[in-house]
Amino acid sequence: MDDLERRLRDLRHQLPDPPEESRRRVERAVLEALRARQRPARPRWVVVAASLAIGACAAGAALAATDNLDVRIGPPKEPAAAPAPGPVRVPAGLDGVALVAGDRLWLGTRSGLGVQGLAVSAAELSPSALYAAVGIGGSLVAMAPDGREAWSHPTGGRVVAAAWAPNPIVVAYVVRRGERNELRVIEGNGRNDQLVDADVGRARPSWRADTHAIAYVGADGRPRVADYPGLASREVDAPPGRVSAVAFAPDGERLALARAEGGLAVSVRGDEASGGWVPLGGRRTALAALAWGTSQELLVGGADPSDPSGARLWRVFAGAMGVGKPSAQAPAAGLAALAPLGDDRVVAAVRTGRGVQVWEADLPSGEAALAPTRVLLRVPAPTGAPVALSTR
Amino acid sequence: MERAAGRTVDIRTRAVPAEGGGGGPATARHDDGRRAGVERGPSDARLVRRAQRGSRDAAAALVARHWPAAHRAALGVTGSAASADDVAQDAFERAFAGLAGFDARRPFAPWLHRIVVNRALDLLRRERRLVGLDALGEGPAGPDRGDEGGDPAALRALAALDPDRRAVVVLRYLLDYRPPEIAEMLGIPVGTVNSRLGRALAELRARLEADGG
After folding, report:
1. Residue of A nearest to B136 (CA)
2. pLDDT for res A145
3. Among partner residues B93, B126, B149, which is closest to A30 by beta-carbon distance?
4. Which of A7, A119, A178 minimises the CB distance to B151?
5. What confidence tier does B172 reach under pLDDT thresholds 50, 70, 90?
6. CA-to-CA separations, A314 to A253, A280, A368, A391, B204, in angstroms, rounded
7. What's residue B94's pLDDT?
8. B49, closest residue in chain A (CA to CA)
9. What is the ipTM of this complex?
10. Above 90 in pLDDT, residue B150?
């Protein structure tokens, strides 16, 4: 063995140990995969028949105890393959739909981009869904149909959230670096990557309609706004409490804030009718989705783990923030994400017992349940896996 | 083979080698999958059988035993800690999703490493295809800053190799597999493994020389 080969062998001792957090994550995923493959209990007669068969082979059983006999009962153990999800169906009125569930991406656009089951950490469609900004490994990747320019930018960490500006020349993204999350912006051609804030929360940032400001959540849970392209950052004057989500209204002035500490509440800044937090649901209600509707209203999804009757969906009109009852009830399995579709319709990502479904649905009035008019996509995903939806 | 109550009852006697050994390399591997010494605790084969029967403890023990080496293999091939996390996790999920069909008499580590390395190569090829890195004239990403250990020049040189060559170097020198084993894992002839190794070593020598290291 020469010196080079010795150096290469020594590299094994020099590569860093994987973080403990990643081992725990993979252990959870593996146990979930194992649980999903568990067979249901066999009928009693099968157990009896199996017992007889094994009992008739007493000598064999003795051997089996020493692992020298392979006893197999039932059909081959190769698990039945799960039905592969089909391509994403894009509803009328949209240019594209992207769903990230369980760190997998399903994406479809009218411009011809289609992805099914790609391992990603985050994804966000550009205006008109011509591109998708996707976190893959340690890079932010701009994907596009054939013929369009695309790029990849090494980020040095996992991209956990991204937001494409309304003017499609810039992407804001949150990247995990060590123990902190950084908010950065990069131009739409993959160049001029800049740091905005070195310590932020994981919430998805939100661009103002004129692209001259980005709202985000600081590491301390306070809402902040940074100018663009100046990148000067300031805290938003907001009622006390930790903010979990921010969303600029399409009109470009109002900023919705959601708080999930001590129960879900929302506030709208830049609207004289708003003041403090407006509570929605009970003290255990947690935020599931925050989006502006096409009628200038806020769509707020919340879930209470102790309430088996289902997640709740509120339509909050900013001029009348005193909402007492939810406008709709989402399915018991749970609402995970929402996006407006116009004409009182929404696209909703809904957790089911076996995964996540993307629905096209009419916004019900009162407390009627949200129900699909069309199922756009069905995908497998571990229970409780993070879900993110991007539509254009 | 018998049939009982409509279900297949397959009772076979087999000469099963001692646990932890048969069907694979002659030497047992340590808890990180490297060739050396004797396994401590239950053998992989026993853990695999228990996991196939649904034991969560056995599955967790397999993860704890093989995660470090699988992660290092992914890191060696992708050159990125974040990508290594994704690749290694994806490989474990695939391995355990297909565990029911795995023959527990075969060694677990090479099977897992085969999945890890092929997933890592898939990722690198897909990134190139999706974003046209070749056309843009950009090379693969180097190791993440902070990942470099005590021989950064060697790590940089390794990261600069073509992914296919990098994979054989990682399997040969970081995971200690022999060329015939690497050939089986990657589905290529042994001659191709040897030629990739030879070219990779020549390229590494040239890069290290140019780097002053």
Report:
1. A151
2. 66
3. B93
4. A7
5. very high
6. 21, 8, 12, 20, 61
7. 83
8. A67
9. 0.71
10. no
Q: Supply the pLDDT for residue A59.
A: 36
A181 vs B contacts (CB less than 8 Å): none
Residue A323: predicted pLDDT:
60
Q: What is the mean pLDDT of each run of 10 residues along chain A (392 residues)?
A: 86 79 79 62 40 38 35 35 63 88 88 83 89 88 71 89 88 92 91 93 93 94 91 88 90 85 81 70 84 85 76 78 69 84 87 84 80 85 84 88
Residues of A with Cβ-Cβ distance to B144 under 8 angstroms: 138, 156-157
User: Rounded to two decimals, what is the model's pTM?
Assistant: 0.56
Contact criterion met (CB < 8 Å) for A53 and B11: yes
Is B127's CB within 8 Å of A154's CB? no
Query: Which residue of A152, A160, A181 is the best one to mutate when testing the B interface, meaning the one whose CB has the most B CBs within 10 A?
Result: A152
CA B106 and chain centroid, separation: 15
With CB atoms and an 8 Å threshold, state whether B130 touches A23: no
Chain A CB contacts of B169 under 8 Å are 8
Q: Give the 3-state secondary structure of chain A.
A: CCHHHHHHHHHHHHCCCCCHHHHHHHHHHHHHHHHHHCCCCCCHHHHHHHHHHHHCCHHHHHHHHCCCEEEEECCCCCCCCCCCCCCCCCCCCCCEEEEEECCEEEEEECCCCEEEEEECCEEEECHHHCCEEEEECCEEEEECCCCCCCEEEECCCCEEEEEECCCCCEEEEEEEECCEEEEEEEECCCCCCEEEECCECCCCCEECCCCCEEEEEECCCCEEEEECCCCCEEECCCCCCCEEEEEECCCCCCEEEEECCCCCEEEEECCCCCCCCEECCCCCCEEEEEEECCCCEEEEEEECCCCCCCCEEEEEECCCCCCCCCCEECCCCCEEEEEEEECCEEEEEEECCCEEEEEEEECCCCCCECCEEEEEEEEECCCCCCEEEEEC
Could you tell me if A62 lies within 8 Å of chain B, comparing CB atoms?
no
Check B123 against A119: CB less than 8 A apart: yes
- H/E run at residue B49: helix B44-52
